[in-house]
Design goal:
Elements lengths: L11 H18 L7 H22 L10 H8 L4 H4 L2 H8 L1 H4 L13 H22 L5
Length: about 140
């Protein structure tokens, strides 16, 4: 009898694949003449969240529904001090949990190139560390 495959939600590689897609779109968007900065921030937050969830699942963590990157980084601290020390990155990214989804929740005109680049840098640092820890190739 064949073993049933794991549910995708319980498979770290599936989380990393989705995270990579989100971050890839954000990186491409930033190359446009007039990027949708709020969308870049939203995608960066989403990518970081998925990288962290994938990493935690690989450590045996049971998936919890949360979009808050800071506590996820806190859980990662039990396994890696460098991820645990990225609370500033988490705080930057948490600003976009709502920002890219719903107009009126924040002033979109306050999200410009500098803010989107800050979010992109934060998500890329999280990706870099998770890929190092998981020995994944960045593509």
């Amino acid at each position: 009898m064949r073993n049933q495959p794991e549910r995708p939600v319980e498979t770290p590689i599936a989380w990393f694949r989705y995270a990579s897609g989100d971050l890839g779109v954000a990186e491409r968007e930033m190359r446009y003449d007039q990027p949708a900065y709020h969308t870049v921030g939203f995608l960066c937050q989403s990518a970081a969240e998925k990288y962290l969830k994938g990493y935690l699942i690989a450590q045996g963590w049971s998936l919890e529904k949360t979009h808050d990157v800071v506590p996820l980084l806190g859980l990662c601290a039990d396994y890696d001090a460098e991820l645990g020390a990225m609370a500033n990155e988490g705080a930057v990214l948490n600003e976009y949990v709502i920002a890219g989804r719903y107009p009126g929740d924040i002033f979109l005109e306050h999200i410009g190139h500098a803010e989107a680049q800050e979010a992109l840098n934060a998500a890329q640092r999280i990706r870099r560390r998770v890929t190092e820890l998981m020995d994944l190739r960045q593509g």
